[in-house]
């Protein structure tokens, strides 16, 4: 792997290290309603929003109330999105004369954007109008990201409050997350992107005559305003089909670097926010360390594998640039692997290179990242709540079993109810991914999907359900997904992956909030420091590996062995 | 029920409308306004105009197969039998062929044969035989340009040094030496060789 690519990785790591305490502390202050530098401008806006919506900002919700509010908002947004997609052809802002989406595609797409997945069975250039892009999809990028953030904050409040009945107010958490955190960063980010060459216009496609005298039509649109929040909110739904590989979504090495930082910054920052709530910064940095370790190992493996090139290519090719199939020249092959690790370690799913054309082991990295539940560092909110529940709660339980004591986390006893809820989240993930993959490989409708033959075709199906269940949205995109079978099964995988996590997590939060806090004793297992970090990583990786190793062996692992043997399909 | 409507459904609908107004109307409109004033060229797609005619975008590659032009990378953007060259600006796409796909190996082999026929038997930089991710990649690597210099010089009756100098003019180095890769913008380079590049 070239030294330049190490510098790229290291400089992104440094940027995240600097941003985490600043943004993490800011998120804590915003979510607790404290005064911040944007308050003079935004507090009045916030008040108007609450007044016109009839929201009592001071009323806190129980875990049940919070859950119902999240689910009702999701239902309303899914129905509204579906309606717009069905009639986008007759609505305004459609200079490209795009037709309506089919019912099953509308269902898949509406669920996809509301669940923060952004799986795309449509093509950005020709499948959606500007109104759909800016008025629905970009809005969902804000609301679904802020919902993840809100649920994470509710869980953290549950873990850190003492003898409390409530977790906060979902409407307020959602509104603050957007107004104070996502929107200001997006305005700045979008303008930087335009400066670098990302379009921001309401004009339709432009037709030009090329140097060789051929007509070329170039799709444009309000790209920049959607691009930044796509990365920042870990949404990942590209304005164009080629996503962040499209020169209009990421025109330069700088935009690529910034987009990787954008998709990592919120989730890593939330570890610091957690430390603030817990009243102990080391709690946050310990989780930061565990997340970063998993991310970096995956990134280096993918970068190394992509930089090596394809051994099956014919002689006479200079492969010094690595595996360039499905890569952009301005980013290079190794940074394609880095972006892939970052986009699947988070729940983003944006791409700057096609994962389907990765070398087998590089393709394994995004697949395994998603199957770990996206906790390195995960989606905005979803990462920290996944890590706290699948990682921390199960890890204290296992540590408790080893020393024969009732497990405690942050001074609260973790009992059978909490373990049940944590286990549900862990099992839902495996059941949905493996269940739907098995279904697809058993039915002709499923087997019709893959483009590639051999084990790689199986990987395409496994990737699709890993991505949708994990609310990621990236794809082994050779799979033909816009069929009733894949649209409907995919939509259910996304719903299960999102709400099958959120509901038990909020239930766990409610139960933890009600507990008293007991003083730590000599027998308490400390949840800070390197030992705890290692235990956390161990639990997450072992749970993921035990669940998914058989399926992974049938896909990328066997493909790597066959590639070594010179076999093609 | 009354309670549910008043405290859950009504706020959900109202808040979705309010947030749509803020993030789906005001925000993109404001960004567009500033972008169009501050960066009008980029905001409209970095289009290049020669003698009043728009000939392309500096960020979007074009299909080239004439010997006098530098060729870009193989493209799967809207590549069909009627448009084998790809580079359709309304259908960005890669091949999505996996690393053990025989279709990939065949495509690469065919591209190797095509390049050898036009350029001789030097080792071919890998970017020239592999499809880009977007199918619209505006760039090739400096090695990919160097590989074609002799052919372009011969076709144009120019010296190799003159063509090489043009390549250097359109080569962008990584920011701070490590962010991004060194690239040669194919359309700008070809415009320059045609003597049509006015700016720069």
Question: Which SSEs are present, and which pair or pack?
Answer:
The complex is a heterodimer of chains A (569) and B (200).
Chain A lengths: L2 H29 L7 H15 L9 H24 L16 H12 L15 H31 L9 H27 L9 E4 L5 E4 L5 H9 L20 H26 L2 H27 L9 E2 L14 H13 L14 H12 L10 H22 L4 E2 L2 E2 L2 H27 L1 H4 L7 H15 L14 H30 L15 H36 L5
Helix pairs in contact in A: 1-6, 1-8, 2-6, 3-4, 3-5, 3-16, 4-16, 5-6, 5-7, 5-12, 5-16, 6-7, 7-8, 8-9, 9-10, 9-11, 9-17, 10-11, 11-15, 11-17, 12-13, 12-17, 13-15, 13-16, 15-16, 15-17
Chain B lengths: L1 H37 L1 H4 L3 E4 L2 E5 L44 H18 L4 E2 L13 E2 L1 H15 L3 H10 L1 E2 L10 E3 H8 L7
Antiparallel strand pairs in B: 1-2, 4-6, 5-6
Helix pairs in contact in B: 4-5
Task: Give a short summary of the structure.
Chain A is mainly alpha-helical.
Key features of this structure:
heterodimer; A: 569 residues; mainly alpha; two-stranded antiparallel ribbon; 17 helices; 5 strands; 2% strand; B: 200 residues; 2 domains; three-stranded antiparallel sheet; two-stranded antiparallel sheet; 6 helices; 9% strand; elongated
Order of helices and strands of chain A: HHHHHHEEHHHEHHHEEHHHHH
Biggest contact: A-B, 129 and 104 residues
Radius of gyration of chain A over all CA atoms, rounded: 23 Å
Output mean pLDDT of chain B: 95
Secondary-structure element pattern of chain B, one letter each: HHEEHEEHHEEH
Q: What portion of the residues of chain B fall into strands of 2 or more residues?
A: 5-15%
Number of strands of chain A: 5
- Side by side, the strands of the main sheet of chain B go 4-6-5
Sheet of most strands of chain B: 3 strands, antiparallel
Oligomeric description of these chains = heterodimer
**Helix amount of chain A:** 55-70%
| Class inferred from helices and paired strands of chain B | mainly alpha
Which band does the percent of strand residues of chain A land in? Answer: under 5%
């Amino acid at each position: 792997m070239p030294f330049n690519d190490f510098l790229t990785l290291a400089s992104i790591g440094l940027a995240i290290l600097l941003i985490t305490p600043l943004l993490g502390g800011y998120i804590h202050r915003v979510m607790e309603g404290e005064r911040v530098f944007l308050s003079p401008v935004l507090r009045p806006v916030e008040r108007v929003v609450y007044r016109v919506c009839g929201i009592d900002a001071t009323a806190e919700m129980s875990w049940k109330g919070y859950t119902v509010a999240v689910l009702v908002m999701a239902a309303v947004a899914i129905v509204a999105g579906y309606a717009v997609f069905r009639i986008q052809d007759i609505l305004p802002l459609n200079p490209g004369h795009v037709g309506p989406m089919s019912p099953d595609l509308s269902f898949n797409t509406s669920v996809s954007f509301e669940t923060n997945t952004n799986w795309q069975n449509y093509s950005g250039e020709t499948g959606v109008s500007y109104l759909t892009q800016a008025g629905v999809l970009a809005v969902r990028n804000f609301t679904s990201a802020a919902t993840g953030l809100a649920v994470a904050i509710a869980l953290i409040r549950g873990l850190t409050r003492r003898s409390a009945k409530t977790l906060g107010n979902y409407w307020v958490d959602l509104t603050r997350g957007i107004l104070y955190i996502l929107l200001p960063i997006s305005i700045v980010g979008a303008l930087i992107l335009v400066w670098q060459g990302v379009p921001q216009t309401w004009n339709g496609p432009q037709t030009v005559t090329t140097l060789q005298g051929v007509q070329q039509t170039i799709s444009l649109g309000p790209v920049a305003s959607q691009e930044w929040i796509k990365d920042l909110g870990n949404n990942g739904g590209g304005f164009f089909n080629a996503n962040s590989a499209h020169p209009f979504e990421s025109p330069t090495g700088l935009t690529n670097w910034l987009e990787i930082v954008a998709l990592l910054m919120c989730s890593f920052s939330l570890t610091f926010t957690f430390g603030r709530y817990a009243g102990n910064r080391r709690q946050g940095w310990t989780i930061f360390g565990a997340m970063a370790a998993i991310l970096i190992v995956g990134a280096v493996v993918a970068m190394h594998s992509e930089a090596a090139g394809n051994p099956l290519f014919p002689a006479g090719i200079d492969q010094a640039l690595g595996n360039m199939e499905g890569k952009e020249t301005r980013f290079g092959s190794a940074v394609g692997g880095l972006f892939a690790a970052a986009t699947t370690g988070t729940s983003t799913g944006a791409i700057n290179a096609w994962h389907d054309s990765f070398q087998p082991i590089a393709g394994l990295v995004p697949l395994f990242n998603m199957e770990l539940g996206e906790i390195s560092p995960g989606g905005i909110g979803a990462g920290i709540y996944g890590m706290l529940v699948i990682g921390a709660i199960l890890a204290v339980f296992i540590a408790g079993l080893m020393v024969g004591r009732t497990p405690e986390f942050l001074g609260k006893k973790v009992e059978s109810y909490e373990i049940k809820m944590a286990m549900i989240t862990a099992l839902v993930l495996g059941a949905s991914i493996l269940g739907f993959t098995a279904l697809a490989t058993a039915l002709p409708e499923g087997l019709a999907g893959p483009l590639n033959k051999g084990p790689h075709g199986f990987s395409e199906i496994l990737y699709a359900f890993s991505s949708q269940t994990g609310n990621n949205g990236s794809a082994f995109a050779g799979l033909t997904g816009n069929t009733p079978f894949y649209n409907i099964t995919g939509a259910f995988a996304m719903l299960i992956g999102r709400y099958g996590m959120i509901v038990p997590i909020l239930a766990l939060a409610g139960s933890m909030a009600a507990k008293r806090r007991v003083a730590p004793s000599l027998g308490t297992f400390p949840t800070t420091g390197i030992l705890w970090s290692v235990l956390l990583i161990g639990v997450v990786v072992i749970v993921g590996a035990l669940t998914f190793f058989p399926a992974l062996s049938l896909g990328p692992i066997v493909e790597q062995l066959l590639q070594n043997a010179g076999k093609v399909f | 029920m009354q309670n549910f409507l008043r405290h859950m459904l009504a706020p959900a609908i109202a808040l979705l409308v309010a947030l749509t107004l803020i993030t789906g109307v005001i925000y993109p409109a404001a960004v567009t306004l500033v972008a169009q004033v501050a960066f009008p060229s980029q905001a409209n797609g970095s289009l290049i105009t020669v003698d009043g005619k728009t000939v392309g975008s500096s960020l979007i590659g074009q299909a080239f197969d004439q010997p006098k032009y530098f060729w870009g990378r193989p493209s799967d953007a809207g590549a069909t039998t009627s448009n084998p060259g790809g580079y359709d600006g309304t259908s960005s796409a890669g091949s999505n062929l996996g690393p053990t796909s025989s279709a990939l190996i065949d495509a690469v082999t065919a591209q190797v044969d095509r390049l050898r026929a036009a350029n001789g038997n030097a080792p071919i930089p890998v970017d020239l035989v592999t499809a880009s991710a977007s199918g619209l990649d505006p760039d090739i690597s400096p090695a990919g340009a160097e590989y074609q210099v002799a052919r372009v010089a011969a076709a144009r009756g120019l010296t190799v040094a003159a063509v090489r100098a043009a390549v250097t003019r359109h080569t962008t180095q990584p920011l701070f030496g490590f962010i991004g890769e060194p690239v040669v913008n194919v359309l700008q380079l070809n415009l320059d060789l045609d003597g049509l590049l006015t700016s720069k």
